[in-house]
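Exercise 7. Given the encoded structure of a 549-residue chain, write a plausible sequence.
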């Protein structure tokens, strides 16, 4: 993707001319094509590049391939270009609305005829109409016709003014639509980079959650939302939290399941089963994160495109610059403004999602010292004449503070100087960042608590696994001991049988008969038969004490 350049020049009439172009993409000047060649510092825009740009083309044309390669810094630069263009369009529409509301002063003619021009027309037409009304009876027809012609000319002039104002509003609406569609496409195609871009922009907000809520409350007052819009946004927040709560609960169980089933011994059968369970939990966690992203995107679309009007959305984008509008933070601010604080469970869920939740009892009015950055009139909405004196000093101070913060944190610096080296007038400037020590301390404390909880859970799991292993080892040892005892008993029985057989065999070999008390002389064959029956008997045969003499 080529470089994005934004240049602002002051025209001869005192207006501002915005020129933004990307290498290889053509050039756009104030939303329309520019005819003659224009030297911009060391860069020149060729006529061929200007001719290839259509009037209906996007401010920053992005192909699907280019979107897939965008980083969070590139997204921020594109967002910056759109906000600067919106600031210029807002100034134009505001001036057009003021002219249309004020109208020209009424002019009167002679004694008989008096007339006024239409809204936005020329006052001379009304004066001419009055003079023509003083004709005599014989020439009344021609005089009336001339007066009607003059009045029609005045009406045509007024219609031209209304048409230019309508065109400015249409251009503003088109830019807002382009930016919102681009951000939605990025949220789907580049979810991680889009999340980085949002987190990257939140550093310009306040230190604590309370200050951030107050900042959004002050912005909403300048946006002039209706009570119906405010209630609708708060209701959308309730629906969003209802949808997101089971997703967050499922994630807690999945995290515990992954930690429990992490395999420790790859050669054991149970560890193989644990590996399968852990793999399934990781797959479910991926789906869980995707579901959360879809619900968050749905909530943002419902708020910014369903509730906000295009002019309100443009003012919101310009006023909260360099930060990005946060639907959840805005909804929380409106909830406190309407006196509908969140419950403790809802506050905890909101904080887990990266939002801000402050009870109404602890919220102060919009006018405290913590919201001076957004309570002041934004530089882009100041009249050009007001920027000559004190306004110019304020802009220079804001530029210096914002540029210092960007240099300290190694962030992409916005285009803040024109080719002549002077300050940009009429463009949104970064707000003065506030110290972030308290916020960092809170984040560190939360991270430490989470780490301690995870460490305690891991220790419990390790102890359980050790106990299970010890029980298994004890059972195996008992089984081995029982097997050894059984083998010893069998060996003893075999030894006894062998001793009996060897004894009778030796006895039959030495004598043909055996004189046993009470039985007399037994033949050798009968003795062998008896000895065979004795040797084939069970191990319960009593052992002989001594060999008879």
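Solution.
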């Amino acid at each position: 993707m080529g470089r994005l350049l934004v240049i602002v020049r002051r025209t001869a009439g005192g207006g501002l001319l915005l020129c933004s172009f990307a290498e290889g993409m053509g050039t756009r000047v104030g939303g329309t094509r520019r005819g003659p060649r224009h030297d911009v510092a060391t860069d020149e825009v060729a006529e061929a590049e200007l001719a290839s740009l259509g009037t209906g083309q996007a401010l920053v044309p992005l192909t699907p391939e280019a979107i897939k390669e965008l980083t969070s810094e590139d997204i921020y630069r594109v967002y910056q270009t759109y906000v600067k263009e919106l600031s210029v369009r807002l100034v134009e529409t505001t001036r057009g609305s003021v002219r249309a509301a004020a109208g020209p002063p009424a002019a009167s003619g002679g004694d008989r005829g008096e007339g006024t021009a239409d809204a936005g027309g020329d006052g001379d037409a009304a004066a001419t109409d009055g003079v023509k009304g003083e004709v005599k009876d014989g020439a009344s027809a021609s005089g009336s016709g001339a007066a009607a012609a003059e009045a029609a000319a005045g009406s045509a002039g007024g219609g031209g003014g209304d048409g230019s104002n309508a065109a400015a509003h249409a251009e503003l609406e088109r830019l807002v639509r382009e930016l919102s569609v681009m951000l939605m496409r990025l949220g789907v195609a580049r979810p991680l980079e889009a999340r980085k871009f949002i987190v990257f922009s939140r550093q310009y907000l306040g230190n604590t959650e309370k200050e951030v809520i107050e900042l959004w409350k002050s912005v909403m007052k300048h946006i002039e939302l209706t009570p119906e819009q405010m209630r609708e946004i708060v209701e959308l927040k309730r629906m969003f939290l209802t949808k997101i709560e089971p997703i967050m609960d499922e994630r807690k169980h999945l995290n515990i399941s992954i930690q429990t089933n992490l395999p420790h011994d790859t050669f054991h059968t149970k560890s193989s089963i644990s590996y399968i369970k852990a793999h399934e939990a990781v797959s479910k966690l991926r789906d869980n994160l995707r579901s959360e992203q879809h619900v968050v995107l749905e909530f943002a679309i419902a708020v910014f495109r369903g509730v906000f009007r295009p002019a309100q959305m443009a003012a919101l984008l310009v006023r909260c610059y360099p930060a990005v509008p946060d639907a959840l933070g805005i909804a929380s601010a409106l909830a406190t403004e309407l006196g509908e604080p969140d419950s403790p469970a809802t506050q905890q869920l909101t904080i887990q999602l990266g939002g801000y939740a402050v009870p109404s009892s602890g919220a102060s009015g919009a006018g405290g010292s913590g919201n001076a950055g957004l309570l002041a009139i934004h530089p882009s909405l100041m009249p050009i004449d007001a920027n000559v004196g004190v306004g110019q000093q304020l802009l220079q101070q804001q530029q210096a503070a914002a540029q210092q913060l960007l240099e300290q944190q190694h962030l992409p610096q916005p285009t803040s100087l024109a080719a002549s080296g002077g300050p940009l007038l009429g463009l949104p400037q970064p707000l003065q960042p506030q110290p972030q020590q308290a916020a960092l301390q809170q984040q560190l404390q939360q991270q430490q608590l989470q780490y301690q909880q995870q460490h305690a859970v891991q220790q419990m799991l390790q102890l359980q696994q050790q106990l299970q292993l010890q029980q298994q080892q004890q059972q195996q040892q008992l089984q081995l001991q029982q097997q050894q005892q059984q083998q010893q008993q069998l060996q003893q029985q075999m030894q006894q049988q062998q001793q009996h057989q060897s004894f009778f065999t030796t006895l039959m070999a030495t004598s043909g008969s055996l004189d046993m008390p009470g039985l007399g002389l037994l033949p050798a064959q009968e003795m062998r038969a008896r000895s065979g029956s004795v040797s084939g008997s069970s191990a319960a045969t009593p052992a002989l004490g001594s060999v008879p003499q």
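Remark. The longest strand covers residues 4-10. Students should compare their own answers with the one above.
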